[in-house]
Amino acid sequence: MSALATLSLAALALPAALLGAAHMSTRRLARGAEELVPPVGQFHQTPHGRIHYVEMGPKDAQTLVLIHGLSGQLQHFTYALADRLAGDFHVIALDRPGCGYSTRNSDTLARLPSQAAMIQEFLDAKGIEAPVLVGHSLGGAVSLAMALATPDKIRGLALLAPLTHPSEGGADVFKGLIVNSPMMRRLMANTVAVPAAKKTADAVLTQVFAPETCPEDFLDRAGGALGLRPQSFVAASADATLLYPTITEQAARYARDLRTPGAVLFGAEDPLLSAEENGRAMEAFGLGCRIVPSLGHMLPITQPALCEEFIRATVASLPK
What we know:
Blueprint: H1 3-13, H2 16-36, E1 42-46, E2 49-56, E3 63-67, H3 75-78, H4 82-85, E4 90-94, H5 112-125, E5 132-135, H6 138-149, E6 156-160, H7 182-190, H8 193-209, H9 218-221, H10 230-241, H11 246-251, H12 254-257, E7 262-267, H13 275-278, E8 287-292, H14 299-302, H15 304-317
Parallel strand pairs: 3-4, 3-5, 5-6, 6-7, 7-8
Antiparallel strand pairs: 1-2, 2-4
């Protein structure tokens, strides 16, 4: 049983006074997180929730849509990568539905096709045509879902350490997010999950960034503190819990339906996703894969120059 699952059972048995104390601690941590990392962009309301996004660069240039991964936010891209691209590209970095300062009206909208549809609704409303999607980690899975759903609207894919296939075991660091009951998900979010995340943050970030190093300013400049809020746990838990069976169904469609060109970049020492299973495997479906020795999973933060070069090369290789 995972640590958070154990905590959820413990929460049910706690006296009301202790639950109240845990709730107050959670509220304090959440307020502190939002003071440290306030909204930095604009908001767009869709029928299914609100999208928070940052827009940079010339609007008449090729649009790049930057889509972050599990438990992330758009600052994973604005930390070091977006500015490097905005001189020559029209860049939109967004908080995925439910993440950061974006919202979604239901946990069921965490499913990959639903996230893809919501982001596409946002792009359509803004009049964005033929973007190149830059998806990191779970954002790569969402990018692929968009390419499968609306191939005529997506010009290309530049995927950074993307989740592309189901994994039998999954990353241990995220197993505590699997909570099947929406009610239990919210009980945990408002009591034990956020204080537990605060206590384990250093160890988790060390594992997520390995073999590279988590930067000291990750909590503020990269927005990591926003994970210390109830809504962030709810969103990440729904993302992780509802990932299956949609990623299995999605992967089964690549051979038949994936027609969008592009490429994949992976670190060979990625501790969360197999570079072979999620990167090299995509070569069979027309996406070239580059695997770089000695690098890990958090490439947009740790390797912005490499990511910039990869994205530029990928865009240059796309059909006109």
